[in-house]
Amino acid sequence: MPSLGPRTLLATIALTTTLTLTACDPAAEAEAPPAPPAPPASSAAYATASAPASSTSPAGSGKHTLAEAATAGGLTKATGAGAVSDVPVDPGEMRDGMHLVVADYNRAGQTSGRRILFVGVDSVPEDPNKRREHLWRGLIDYALQNGSTGTPTTAKPYQPGPFGGSLECLSLPESANTTDVICGWSDTTTAAVALFPRTTPADAARLFGAMRADLEH
To answer: What is the average pLDDT across 29-53?
Structure first.
């Protein structure tokens, strides 16, 4: 290894010192553009929470099922000879693991007259919206005695409730009972419809949402 003379050694030390100071110079570091801040982990949740409520919301996670309830939304399930005993609306293809719920319900204090008819299925293998439309058209035909001229496209959306999905209602002005209303809901795995005699779409939607809380699990 060659030996360095005094002048060469001093020049090397000076150069090394200059490079070291430059590398540690705070001013030099300040000139570098700062890295963009990472988005907060809760930004997506905040955006969802700040969005206005809508008639259609994400369906809850997990599989939902339907089951008959003795009371649903404050209504009492009809029993005995006057209760619905068959399936008045074609529910579509039923496969293993699916449940069909057909029931009619009395309003508080009701002892006669037309009841609220409910038809719903769970574990739907296809798009539940398509199954709801199938049920809906069948219920319209039933309500109009197979003279349907209304379609689900005339429905108005309403708040679906905690299970999410969508809930819509339509009136049947072409019916002999001009105040009849049909409502339907669908989410990730269930689809259901109901016929509400002598009511308004807004009242039927509120009542249907309350029924859903007791019929869907």
So the answer is: 35
Separation between Cα atoms, residue 105 and residue 69, nearest integer Å: 10
Burial class, 77, CB count within 10 angstroms (exposed 0-12 / middle 13-18 / buried 19+):
middle
* b/e burial code for range 22-37 (CB count within 10 A of at least 16 → b): eeeeeeeeeeeeeeee
Is 195 in contact with 143 (CB distance < 8 Å)? Answer: yes
SS3 content of the chain, % helix, strand, coil (to 5): 30, 20, 50
Residue with tokens 């019916």: 175
Mean pLDDT score of the chain, rounded to an integer? 75
For residue 176, what pLDDT is reported?
Answer: 62
Q: Which of 19-28, 62-71, 184-193 has the lowest mean pLDDT?
A: 19-28
Dihedral (CA of 174, 178, 180, 182) sign: positive
Burial of 159 (0-12, 13-18, 19+ CB in 10 A): middle
The CA–CA distances, whole Å, from 27 to 18, 20, 22, 23, 36 equal 15, 14, 9, 10, 20
Question: pTM value?
Answer: 0.69
Q: What is the mean pLDDT of residues 60-85?
A: 86
Given a contact cutoff of 8 angstroms between Cβ atoms, the answer to whether 76 and 106 are in contact is: yes
Q: What is the pLDDT of residue 205?
A: 96
47-56 burial by CB neighbour count: b if 16+ within 10 A, else e? eeeeeeeeee
Please give the angle made by the CA atoms of 55, 191 and 149, to the nearest 5 degrees.
Answer: 80
